[in-house]
Design goal:
The protein is an alpha/beta fold. The chain has five helices and ten strands; from the N terminus they run E-E-H-E-H-H-E-E-H-E-H-E-E-E-E. Helix 1 runs parallel beside helix 3. Pfam families: RibD_C.
Length: 194
């Protein structure tokens, strides 16, 4: 069975963005190890689950990277992989999605997500998309959380797991430290909730 893996950049004090969605704190930590992590992750999967905000950001940039003469070859290869992947976009407000291989879904139906996990293929990744992660967490549908803890304290911002009503017990299955100071923590649920 395929796994749903959530990957999220988080500050040391638990924020995924500043109060105005700023993420300028990420750039200083992006190094060769981060590039390898991102490349390995995307190559382990064939499907992306995206919320509206992350979809807009990704669809606005990644389709154009392969033709950008100033983009490094590693970034172009990563963009080609993302562009070729199947993308399922969750949004109640969109009428359509234009990025190739994208399908629009209006709401999360747990049985449909379980069916998706049963399909043959590689893993399913959720980049960012905090509200989608929170929804799937509430249905016990995420198999692994990969948190990239950045060495910065914002003091205020948008918390990742805000609004989770039920406790979710996790076990640490791996951790890695990048030269930049980013620590990647790999967690899996201890048990499935009913």
């Amino acid at each position: 069975m395929r796994k749903i893996i959530s990957t999220m950049w988080v500050t040391l004090d638990g924020f995924i963005a500043g109060l105005n969605n700023e993420m300028d704190w990420v750039g200083e930590s992006y190094d060769e190890a981060m590039g390898k992590y991102e490349s390995d992750l995307v190559n382990s999967a064939d499907t992306l689950l995206l919320g509206r905000v992350t979809y807009q950001s990704f669809a606005g940039s990644w389709p154009h990277v392969p033709n950008n003469p100033d983009a490094p070859e590693e970034e172009k290869a990563y963009a080609r992989t993302l562009n070729a992947m199947r993308k399922i976009v969750f949004s109640r407000t969109f009428e359509s999605v234009e990025w190739n291989n994208s399908t629009l879904v209006k709401e999360v139906v747990p049985a449909e997500i379980e069916r998706l996990k049963q399909e043959p293929g590689r893993n399913i990744i959720i980049y960012g998309s905090a509200s989608l992660v929170r929804t799937l967490t509430s249905f016990s549908l995420i198999d692994e959380y990969q948190l990239l803890i950045h060495p910065v304290i914002l003091g205020q911002g948008k918390p990742f797991f805000q609004g989770i009503k039920d406790q979710v017990k996790l076990k640490l299955v791996d951790s890695r430290t990048h030269p930049s100071g980013v620590v990647v923590l790999f967690y899996q649920p201890r048990e499935k909730r009913a």
